[in-house]
Specification:
InterPro entries: KR_dom, NAD(P)-bd_dom_sf, Sc_DH/Rdtase_CS, SDR, SDR_fam. Helix 1 runs parallel beside helix 2, helix 3 packs parallel to helix 4 (103-131) and helix 4 runs parallel beside helix 6 (152-172). The chain has a 7-stranded parallel beta sheet with strand order 3-2-1-4-5-6-7, sandwiched between helices. The protein is built from 8 helices and 7 strands; from the N terminus they run βαβαβαβαβααβααβ. The protein is an alpha/beta fold.
Length: 246
């Protein structure tokens, strides 16, 4: 079902992992997608376009740069004529205890996840308000809900995205713009491969559905939030964690 035909979206951090899966779901739905990432965007866009029926274009984008984020929004309008969907997905981790974490480590993670999310939401809304429509999805984490030792920066940033989502949803709703968030749990990405096997086993045992998430699990939920199927949903936070931390 090509429910995104004629639609145009931007996905940050889309060169791989969850972001790539989200971009793929949009392209497979017929959309034009701007793959925005600090590296690998062009290669990812070429691969996605080959899958079709939509198409993708790559753009180098540092989400902490106001100019880069604005350029990503402009690229959507240039290549597709509108900006219907925006996904703030870019992120990374720099885990360590507070005793060892430097101010630079803390700020770097806050800047990419939270400041980048705010810049993306603001840039998208500036275009969408003129159209009278649009959907924005922020990728948070269950870490925002529970906190993780060694992740004071990451947990704080992801919690901040929830506040941003709810405030933006209230601010932009009357303009026809919906803003929602997704909180993935443990999903098979290079990020979780860094965890020790015993930690992974313990977390798996605490997951009612008995498996780790796949990037497609998150992408399917994001696609729903971007689509007209969720037309009366804004300010919502959907947890995609197999029941862990429900």
């Amino acid at each position: 079902m090509e429910e995104f035909t004629g639609r145009v979206g931007v996905v940050t951090g889309a060169a791989n992992g969850i972001g790539y899966a989200i971009a793929r779901s949009l392209v497979n739905g017929g959309a034009t997608v701007v793959v925005a990432d600090v590296a690998g965007a062009d290669e990812a866009a070429r691969a996605l376009t080959l899958e079709g029926p939509g198409k993708a274009v790559g753009i180098r984008c540092d989400v902490t740069s106001e100019e880069d984020v604005a350029a990503a929004a402009a690229a959507a309008v240039e290549h597709g004529g509108s900006l219907d969907h925006w996904v703030n997905n870019a992120g990374f981790t720099r885990d360590m205890t507070m005793r060892r974490m430097t101010l630079e480590d803390f700020r770097a993670v806050i800047d990419v996840h939270l400041v980048g999310g705010w810049l993306g939401t603001r840039a998208a809304a500036a275009v969408m308000r003129e159209q009278g429509r649009g959907t924005i999805v922020n990728i948070s984490s269950t870490s925002a809900k529970t906190g993780n030792p060694g992740q004071t920066n990451y947990s704080a940033a992801k919690a901040g995205l929830i506040g941003l989502t709810k405030a933006a949803a209230k601010e932009l709703g009357h303009l026809g713009i919906r803003v929602n968030a997704v909180q993935p749990g443990l999903v098979r990405t290079p990020m979780i491969e860094k965890l020790k096997p015993e930690i992974l086993e313990a977390r798996l045992a605490d997951t009612p559905l008995g498996r780790f998430g796949e990037v497609e699990d998150v992408a399917d939920t994001v696609s729903y939030l971007l689509s007209d199927r969720s037309a009366f949903l804004t300010g919502a936070v959907i947890q995609v964690s197999g029941g862990r931390h429900m």
